[in-house]
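Weekly modeling sync, notes
Attendees: S.R. (lead), two postdocs, one rotation student

Agenda item 3: backlog of single-chain predictions. S.R. asked that every request posted to the team notebook include the full sequence so nobody has to chase files. The rotation student volunteered to paste the first one in as an example of the format we agreed on. Action items at the bottom.

Example entry:
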Amino acid sequence: MMRSNDGFITSPPAKDGLLARAFAGVLSRFHTLGLDPREHSALRRCHFAGPGGAQDVSEAGGCDPMRAEEHGDLVELLLAHRADPSRETLWLAFTIATACLGDNHLWQDMGLNGREELSALLDKHFTALYQKNVHNMKWKKFFYKELCRKAQVALCKAPSCRVCSDYAACFGPE
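Predicted structure, as returned to the notebook:
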C-alpha cells in the first residue's frame, strides 16, 4: 500500500470481492453513493474495471433532498469510527449510508448474502463502531440509535431496550 498525494492509502484495484459486491449492490439499487464525482470515478476504476464492469454502474440519481442531512449524519458516524484512511473505507461509509436509506435489511439493500457479510465489512473497516454493538442489534437500527445517542434523543419508549415494546424489531432475527 502507498499513500497518495491526497492523503488516502491506495491499493491495487479489485482486491476485495465482498467490498466490490457491496458497492455494486448499492449502486444497482440506488444509482449513487453520494460521493463527489472524483471519488465516484476512482471507485469505478478500482472495482469495476474490465469488460462491461464500469458501464453497468450508473452515476444517475442522487440522495432524496429530504434525506440528505440524514445521509450526511450516517457518513459522519461511520467515518468517525473508520479503522483506516483508505479510499475503500471512505467509499464503504458512503455505501452503507446510502443503503441505510433503503427499505430492507441493510445487508439486503447492499446486495450482500447475509448479515454476516455486512458484519465482516464493518468489523474490518469500522472496527470501533462494530465493537460498540455489544448486544448484536440489527445494524441499521444500531446506527440510528448511535445518531440519536449523539443528538441526546431517546430512541426507546422504555428506560431500557430490554423492556421496550419494539425490542423484537431491533433484535429479532433477520
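Discussion: group reviewed the output briefly. The longest strand covers residues 2-3.
Action items: rotation student to repeat for the remaining queue; S.R. to check formatting next week.
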